[in-house]
Amino acid sequence: MTAQLIDGAALALEKINQLKQSVTKLQARGVTPGLATVLVGDDPASRIYIRNKARACAQAGVNSIHHDVPASATEREVLDLVTRLNNERAVHGIIVQLPLPRHLDAQRLSQAIAVEKDVDGFNWLNLGALVEGAPGITPCTPRAAMAMLDHAHVPIEGRHAVVVGRSTIVGKPAALLLIARGATVTVCNSRTPDLGAVTRQADILIVATGKAHLITRGMVKPGAAVIDVGINRLASGKLAGDVAFDEVKDVAGWITPVPGGVGPMTVAMLVENTVDAAARSAT
Ligand code: GUN
Questions:
Q1: Count of other CB atoms within 10 angstroms of residue 59
Q2: Cβ-count burial of 89 within 10 angstroms (0-12 exposed, 13-18 middle, 19+ buried)?
Q3: For the domain bounded by 33-114, which CATH number is listed?
Q4: Residues with a known catalytic role
Q5: What is the C-alpha to C-alpha distance for residues 276 and 283, in angstroms, rounded to an integer?
Q6: Which residues does a 6 A CB cutoff place in the pocket of ligand 1?
Q7: pLDDT 10s digits, 41-74
Q8: Class of the CATH-defined domain 140-262
Q9: What pTM does this model have?
Q10: Is the pLDDT of residue 152 over 90?
Q11: Where are the domains positioned within the chain?
């Protein structure tokens, strides 16, 4: 292995400990940050993510209040719950876990969350602020990727960053954050013809496609920083990233593992967005 490992689990723990101090200060002012989580249905992966989010909140001293909603709920019922949470003073952040059952409109539900409580950063006002470089709440996963690059002191300004994936949750906001830091950014996707020809130009490669082992050794420039956002369950039951870690680790300069990479850091960023939202509500 030549690459330096960027240990997301360790970094997340450090972040959570810092946040705990901020929470203590807020509590002295009478505010305990609160995160409301909403899970519609019983997707097993979503349940694990929600559990991890609740655990991280508890470690930081943030209240998390979970709402289980049956898969048979109507959109009106879920919207009413979101409206109720929008109006609850003790709730500073709200997330509706995705994916949602097919009969519910994820976009409408995400947009129903009050902009100041939208700790996922999916509200169009927050996404618009990101385009403009104005203050707002930034989506957790791309923030996690940037925090990991910064922790490893990976230079960004003037470098070529390639983002593989174009989702609103990861790919597009990651590209915007990199642009804001002065990188030259190329956005492609798993179907880009000769993807390797593009990824081989990357000084920074961020991969978020949901395709296990899409990025192989020959697709990575020697010395590049490789941030793997994918979490895929293999037929064997093992978790794998979008990057073939075992081979890419020998050419990359930095690499994030799966599990234990971007995932835990994303959760820490959600806690941070919640603590920040609580602090803003207290001023
Ligand atoms: N499902 C997978 N990732 C996310 C996320 O970041 N936020 C929400 N709400 N659901 C998700």
A1: 17
A2: exposed
A3: 3.40.50.10860
A4: 53, 97, 120
A5: 11
A6: 95-98, 120, 140-141, 169
A7: 999 999 999 999 999 999 999 999 999 999 999 9
A8: alpha beta
A9: 0.98
A10: yes
A11: 33-114, 140-262
